[in-house]
Amino acid sequence: MRETQGFKIYRGVVLTVLGLFVLVPLYVMITSSLKPLKDVQGAFSWWPSNLTLAPFVDMWKTVPLARYFVNSTIVSVSATVFSVAIAILAAFAVSRFRFRGRTAFTTTVLSTQMFPGVLFLLPLFLIFVNINNSFGLQLVGTRLGLIITYLTFSLPFSIWMLAGYFDSIPRELDEAALVDGCGPMGALWRVVLPAARPGVIAVAIYSFMTAWGEVLFASVMTTEANRTLSVGLRQYSTQTNIYWNQIMAAALVVSVPVVIGFLLAQRHFVAGVTAGAVK
Amino acid sequence: MSVATQEATPAAAKPAKKKTKRGPEHRPGLNRWLPYLLLAPAVLAELLIHIIPMVVGIWMSFIKLTKFFIANWSAAPSAGLNNYKVALDFNNAVGEGLLKSFGVTVAFSLITVALSWVLGMAAAVALQPPFRGRGIIRTFFLVPYALPAYAGILTWNFMLQRDTGAVNHVLNQLHLSDGRTFWLIGSNALVSLIVVATWKLWTFAFLTLMAGLQSIPGDLYEAASVDGAGNLRQWRNITLPSLRPVNLVLVLVLFLWTFSDFNTPYVLFGTAQPPAGDLITFHIYNASFLTWNFGTGAAMSVLLLIFLMIVTGAYLLVTGRRSRRA
Predict the structure, then answer these.
(1) Which end of chain B is more exposed for a tag (fewer CB within 10 A), N or C?
(2) pTM of the model
(3) Residues contacting A126, CB < 8 A, separation 6+
(4) Is A8 on the interface with B (CB under 8 A)?
(5) Interface probe with B: pick from A5, A7, A17, A18, most Cβ of B within 10 Å
(6) Domain locations along chain A
């Protein structure tokens, strides 16, 4: 594409408009988190005239944010670890072996990604309640239930993306490892995995993001004991007050780690998405 | 051109596949079972969380599952097709609510997907030729996608408040309104939903289209330039056709996502949804968990699934036929 004068104008307009569209909410989030409560309860102002860090201090007291943080961290990290491990094994099987049921497996797994969560929500809730009643294993209102649920949410995409990554690693490398006396698992561990590290990192961040931001199942499967951030942030709206400055501060704090992680790994995402889209 | 590559790929790929067959499988015994062992955890997890609940959900839609039977659901009496009759009887309150919610969701999805695609495409094309600062802008555009959904939606919720929000403030300053518009209740709720959902979704379209643009060889554009084609014609004759496979998947995925969007209405409205913002997933959620009538909720879910399957099937059929003709 040539950079004509017309194109430069087009680019300027598009980037300005979209830049503002993206920027304004982020700006509002950041500046409102630095305002005292009375300033977010009055008419909106672009510039925080009474700068304060108090919302970042008070937000831990208004609601048990620290506990939500711990819950979200434990749930998301565990779900990520299990999801990535399971996806690596499955992707290795799909990429390196030809076996009966291979296509059936990949199609079924991918199609589960397509279906709306509300479809599984009701029955899963009832299944969990019944597991509790018959085996005494509590899954509703515990972190374990959330971990098991969340790890499957990222699984289809992870398997698909990792299988693509593994496919791009020359099989001669595996064969060399086999000749050297490794079993297939040794080849996976010593040869394939190290070569697929960017893919594994991207998939791990994706899994973490999925679990960290999940709202639907969290709103049904959590009680005060295992409440995660995604529903916990609602607690800032009380009968008498909505602490918007603290909500914005908390939203900012819970977002920063995920956003940084994603932006660092975005190259691998683009590669993964392209590979998938071209297939 | 796309036909030629489609034919070429399988032929080229086959010999490579055959070669690998000798790879890890040359020792029989354990290796025959190994792939199944490797898949077992994934299959187990998918069965427990997706497949079995789906089957149970279909069964649930045929029983009278109210809150008295939750702990002991096998005792719930059969309802036959009653749950479906209630959900689809558009003359009574439940059916009418579902139909209205369906209409709102169709409008919401079509507009949101179209907007997201247009914005994503506009930005991807604008960032196609390299220039200074391109990387930074690209990264910046991805922030809404990287943000946890609820964090972005909460911010919009604050901005859309009537008396304290930024949106009314701006509209008032620009003399476009008196600055006292209700955005989260009443008929404007649909507009709010579309804006907020687009804010998050367009960056995914952008990410995908950008990745697709990278795989178009630059000489195509050079050749077209030599032939005197302007930028607009190059976009129509090179960019758009080359992105066709990407677009096919992208539009379908965007549609399925928006159609079953739960986060946006839930975080924006809480459990008191305005009728104009009553998206279907949210409607089913409320019908089941607020009234504890799981049977009807399950029937609605199954109807939603059937609808999405029909749309997906028809979409694949139509687009598949058209690409074969091309």
Answers:
(1) N
(2) 0.85
(3) B56, B60, B65, B70, B73, B294
(4) no
(5) A18
(6) 52-278
